[in-house]
Amino acid sequence: MRKEYTKIRKIESSMIEIEKVTDVAYKAVVSVHALGMDFVGQVVKIDDDTVTIEVFGNTEEFSLNDIVVSFHEKPLEIPLDESILGRSFNGIGEPIDNGGDIYSDDKYSVEGLPLNPVAREYPRDFIQTGISSIDTLTTLIRGQKLPIFSGSGLLHNEIAAQIVRQAKLKTDENFCFVFAAMGIKKDEAMFFEDAFNKAGVRDKVVMYQNLADSPIMERLVAPKCALTAAEYLAYKRGYHVLVIVTDMTSYSEALREVSSIRGEVPSRKGYPGYLYSDLASLYERAGMIRGVKGSVTLIPILTMPNDDITHPVADLTGYITEGQIVIDRSLSNKGIYPPINVLPSLSRLMKDGIGEGYTRADHEDLMNQLYESYSKVQDVRNISQIVGEDDLSDVDKKYLRFGDEFERRFLAQDKDENRELDESLDLGWEILKILPRNELHRVSKENLDKFIGE
Questions:
Q1: Both 63 and 98 in a single domain?
Q2: 106: exposed, middle or buried (C-beta count within 10 Å: 0-12, 13-18, 19+)?
C-alpha cells in the first residue's frame, strides 16, 4: 500500500512542494487527489525531505488543506500496441478521440531508453517527400533528424501536412507517422486532422496534441510520448517511422516558464542552462539500430522569434541536428509555396544517401550546380539594384532569368503536387539550360553532354 501525504508546503502555478517525504525517486509518477478529482504529476526536484512535483493539470483552485499525494515507484509510462495507429491522444498519452483506452500488457517509459552509439547504424536511404526543394537539395535520409526553421505566420503547418501526405520510401516496407503538436490552437489541430483524413493516411498516423489552453506541463511530455510511440513502432514492430514535432519553440518556452517557477538561474534570453541537453535528449532518440528492421526519422519544426536564426532554440537545434530546412519570409511574400530558401538550408547526411544506387547518378552534380548558380543570382540581383538591369552583361541577365525560373518553376509547386524524384531532377536540368554551358562549373563533362548538350 502506498503512503499518502497531505503536508503541502506551497503551491505555485503547476508546482506543489511537499515536506517530510522519504524514499522517492526523481521523475517518479505522482497521483494527486484534489477538488474531488485525480491528477497525474511527476517528481522534478528532491531537496532533503522536501519534494517538488509538477502537476499535469490546472492547479489554480487547489487548496493546501485539500490535497492528497501518493508516489509511484516508476516514471510516467504509456500503454502501446499497434492499435495506436490512427488514434489521437493528449500530451500525456490519454485518448481524446472517443476510441477507448489502449489495452496492452506492455507499458513504456516516456523517458525512453538511451541508444548505444556503437549500435547505431549510419543512415543512407532517402525518404521522398514529393517536394522538389527538399528531395533534390536537402534530401531527407531515413533515420535522420532534420528540423524546419520557420517564422510566425509562415506556412510550416502546410509543409508538415504535405510531407505526411506524400512521404514514401523507395521500397514497400511498413511506413507510418507520429505527429506531435505542442501549444497549437484548436483550429490548427483541426487542420491537421482534416488534412490527414482527406489524404487517406489517417490510419497510418498517431497524433499527440497539446492545445494552447492545455496545462503547460503537458507540453513538456507530449514530444516524449510521441517519440516513445515511434520507438515502439520502429524497434518492436518493424515500422519505418517519420516523426513530425511542432512547435519546439512552444516546448522551449514552456521549459523556460517551468524553470522560472522552480527558481533556477536563467541563461540566454531566460532559458535554462540545460536547454541544450534537454533538446538533445529528444532529438537523439531518432536513428537506426544495427540489426533492427525499423527506424525513427525526426522532423522538428520551430518558429524563430523575429525570424532570428541565432535565437537560442534555433541555434542549439542546429548544433544537435543534421542540417536544417529554412522557410523564408521574402519568398512567401512573393507567393512562392513552399517558401524554402535553399541557400541556408542543408542536409548533412545527404552526401551519403544520394547518387548511384540510392537516388540517381547525376543527383550530386545537379545539387552542387543549382546551389552555385542560385547563389550567383543573389549577387547579380544586388548589383542590378545599384546599376540597373539594362547595364548588366548578357550572362548576368541570364542569371536573373535563371533565378526567376528556378523560384517560379522549381521551388514553387501546389500544396497537393507530389513530384517524383526523377521529375524534380529533370526539371532542375531543364532550368540550368538557361545558363551558358561554360558557367556550369560543378558538373562533370559526362553529365553536361547528357543533360545540357552542346
A1: no
A2: exposed
Give 307-324 pLDDT, tens digit per residue. Answer: 999 999 999 999 999 999
Give the per-residue pLDDT at 55. 85
Rounded Cα distance between 87 and 107, Å, is: 17
**Whether the predicted pLDDT of 172 surpasses 70:** no
CA 152/CA 154 separation, integer angstroms: 6
CA distance readout (Å), 27 to 92, 186, 265:
14, 30, 21
pLDDT at 132 exceeding the cut of 80: yes
Using alpha carbons only, give the angle 422, 423, 424 rounded to the nearest 5 degrees: 90
Tell me, yes or no, whether 357 lies in a domain: no
What is the arithmetic mean of pLDDT over 282-302? Answer: 93
Q: Which of 288, 321, 352 is the last residue of a domain?
A: 352
| Alpha carbon distance 336, 409 (integer Å) | 10
- Asked if residues 70 and 30 have their Cβ atoms less than 8 Å apart, the reply is yes
Provide mean pLDDT across the span 52-80. Answer: 84
| Whole-number Å distance between alpha carbons of 115 and 333 | 43
Q: CA 107, CA 105: separation in Å to the nearest integer?
A: 7
d(CA 98, CA 247): 25
- Angle ∠(364,146,317) on CA atoms, nearest 5: 130
pLDDT in tens, 85-104: 999 999 889 999 988 889 88
pLDDT at 79 (0 to 100): 92
Of 79, 106, 92, 78, whose CA–CA distance to 41 is shortest? 92
**Which of 23, 40, 71 finishes a domain?**
71
Q: Rounded to whole angstroms, how far apart are CA atoms 147 and 149?
A: 6
Instruction: Using only the alpha carbons of the chain, give its radius of gyration.
Output: 25
Q: Of 33-42, 212-221, 340-349, which one has max mean pLDDT?
A: 340-349
420-440 pLDDT, tens digit each: 999 999 999 999 999 999 999
Interatomic CA distance for residues 419 and 134, integer angstroms:
11
Task: Give one DSSP letter per residue of 241-271, joined into a string.
Answer: EEEEEE-HHHHHHHHHHHHHHHTPPB-GGG-
Query: Is residue 106 assigned to a domain?
Result: yes
